[in-house]
Design goal:
There is one protein chain. This protein has 217 residues and is mainly alpha-helical. It has two domains: 94 residues, no CATH class; 107 residues, Substrate Binding Domain Of Dnak, Chain:A, Domain 2, CATH 1.20.1270. Helices cover 67% and strands 6% of the residues. The strands form two sheets. Strands 1-2 form a two-stranded antiparallel ribbon. The chain has a two-stranded antiparallel sheet with strand order 3-4. Helix 1 runs antiparallel to helix 2, helix 2 packs across helix 3 and helix 7 packs antiparallel against helix 8. The longest helix is centred in the C-terminal third of the chain and has 23 residues. It is globular, with a radius of gyration of 18 Å. Keywords: Plasmid.
Length: 217
């Protein structure tokens, strides 16, 4: 699970940037770890703590999305993530994670985030699996199960309608929708006794969180 929380103490994150650079910046894996370490440091500067591993997962998902959308290689996509791009990404990341817009009508919120049709399809499938898992688990009281059922079915409906309104290209949606989906996935991953489902939901939660960060212009 990705753990992101407000910073409560100062950590020597910047020292890790130099260490990551020493591990070989020319290699794809080395570059990704270096960029993730820097992203973690930038988020820390903005008052939010994110692990390097979580930052790496977010960057990997975002770069794959850029490569798929533009029809370029992963290596070409990574060139767009220079220092200024990482700085902008950190700004958007911190701002996006600040709120799920609780109580907000998803249809009335600005649709500033995008995801591919196939990516949204995976999230919809994950919501369906989450609904089934909530129905089966003994870890929930009846009232909590009913609340989960209502929230998940509403998200399924909203996601499906937003997909139907996108006639071509990527699907646009409010960042809050993706953040709510990610929260559902991580919650169900913690509740289920099926390791494979838990791992899949955690990966899909990363996909949802990454989609929530608006594209950089």
């Amino acid at each position: 699970m990705i753990r992101i929380w407000p910073r409560t103490s100062t950590q020597p994150v910047h020292d890790a940037v130099g260490k990551a650079r020493d591990r070989g910046e020319g290699e794809p894996g080395g570059w990704l770890r270096q960029a993730a370490t820097r992203l973690a440091a930038l988020a820390d500067d903005r008052g939010m703590t994110i692990s390097v591993a979580a930052a790496e997962s977010l960057l990997r998902e975002r770069l794959s999305r850029i490569a798929d959308r533009l029809g370029i290689s992963w290596h070409q996509a990574q060139r767009s993530f220079d220092v200024s791009a990482l700085d902008a990404f950190a700004d958007r990341l911190v701002a996006t994670f600040a709120t799920e817009e609780p109580g907000g009508d998803l249809f009335s919120l600005p649709r500033t985030a995008q995801i591919s049709v196939s990516g949204l399809g995976r999230l919809i499938a994950g919501l369906a699996e989450s609904l089934l898992a909530c129905e089966r688990t003994a870890a929930l009281e009846d009232d909590e199960r009913a609340a989960r059922r209502l929230e998940i079915t509403e998200l399924l409906s909203v996601a499906g309608l937003m997909q139907s309104e996108s006639s071509q290209g990527d699907v646009s949606a409010p960042p809050a929708m993706f953040l709510r989906i990610a929260r559902i996935f991580t919650t169900v991953a913690d509740l289920t006794d099926q390791p494979e489902l838990a791992n899949t939901l955690r990966r899909d939660a990363i996909r949802a969180r990454t989609a929530a960060v608006p594209e950089m212009n």
